From TrEMBL:
The chain crosses the membrane at residues 12-32, 44-67, 82-106, 127-149, 169-189, 210-229, 249-267. This is G protein-coupled receptor. The keyword Kinase does not apply. Keywords: Membrane, Transmembrane, Transmembrane helix. The keyword Transmembrane helix applies.
Length: 288
């Protein structure tokens, strides 16, 4: 990819990530306003927070690549820690979103499968804490390795760390999340075949639709492209040229998946106008 195309890609990533941050902050405010105190900090909360962090991390990494070329080579390429940050951050951002999305799917599976026990044992809060712990540990591990570098010439270590994250850790995360999404889809179908009352269906419908849309975006725009890229990685080396031509755009496709999932979530969570009919006096609008 030439420098101009790469520059446009980072401009797109910054724009896309900025929209992701704004939409998920709005969703967070709506969630905190509507939810009961005991259910506010479940997996939906964690998913929104993770998307905000994803957006901020992507913006910071892309901004480094948009520095004027003389400044970039002097300050970023000449500093191993900063170079490693700019290379690892986009993949770490994708990693934490994938973990939170997978556990959000697992959360919905538990809601549909266990129902009463889900609330009694507060499984949503426990899954939320698990997602935060996994993501915090991942960031601490890779950024900690960056911080302890002593030499500014350890480019082999930089490349190796980047390849391990991109072609080993991240694909395994995508595989695990895809399997959880498949379980969610099966449970989703079984859940709606049951004889449930209308209130129960409506209560579960909104969150399930969000996760279902996220599942489609994840598989089509994330799991498949990155899975193909892994087959061409230095660890497998199938050398498919058409996959090589697609790989530079994997980050853009991932960003698009997060943006579209965030947009769908924001539409589903928007306040709606409800009309209450009053006896013999017409109807009066009431917003909720």
């Amino acid at each position: 990819m030439d420098y101009f195309s790469m520059e446009r890609q980072h401009v797109f990533l910054i724009t896309c990530s900025s929209l992701v941050v704004i939409m998920n902050l709005i969703c967070l405010l709506i969630l905190l306003h509507r939810s009961a105190p005991f259910s506010r900090f479940g997996m939906l909360f964690t998913m929104f927070v993770t998307r905000v962090v994803y957006g901020l991390m992507t913006i910071s990494a892309s901004a480094l690549w948009l520095l004027p070329r003389p400044i970039f080579f002097e300050t970023v390429f000449g500093n191993t820690r900063l170079l490693l940050y700019s290379l690892l951050t986009p993949h770490l951002a994708e990693q934490i979103v994938s973990v939170s999305g997978a556990l959000c799917a697992l959360d919905r599976v538990l809601v549909m499968a266990t129902n009463v026990r889900y609330n009694v044992f507060r499984l949503g809060g426990r899954l939320s804490f698990t997602a935060l712990l996994i993501n915090a540990s991942t960031l601490a591990c890779f950024y900690g390795a960056t911080a302890v570098l002593r030499s500014t010439k350890e480019l082999n270590f930089v490349q190796f760390t980047h390849d391990v994250l991109k072609y080993c850790v991240f694909p395994l995360t995508l595989l695990g999340s895809t399997l959880l999404y498949v379980v969610f889809a099966i449970q989703y179908r079984q859940f709606y075949l049951r004889k449930l009352n209308v209130a129960d269906r409506k209560q579960a419908l909104q969150a399930n639709q969000m996760v279902l849309f996220q599942m489609v975006m994840h598989i089509v725009l994330c799991a498949i492209p990155n899975g193909l890229a892994t087959l061409n990685s230095p660890f497998i080396r199938l050398r498919m040229k058409w996959v090589d031509s697609m790989e530079p755009f994997n980050g853009v496709m991932f960003s698009m998946s997060v943006l579209l999932a965030s947009l769908f979530t924001a539409i589903k969570m928007r306040p709606r106008r409800i009309f209450l009919r009053v006896a013999s006096s017409g109807s009066s609008p009431c917003t909720k």
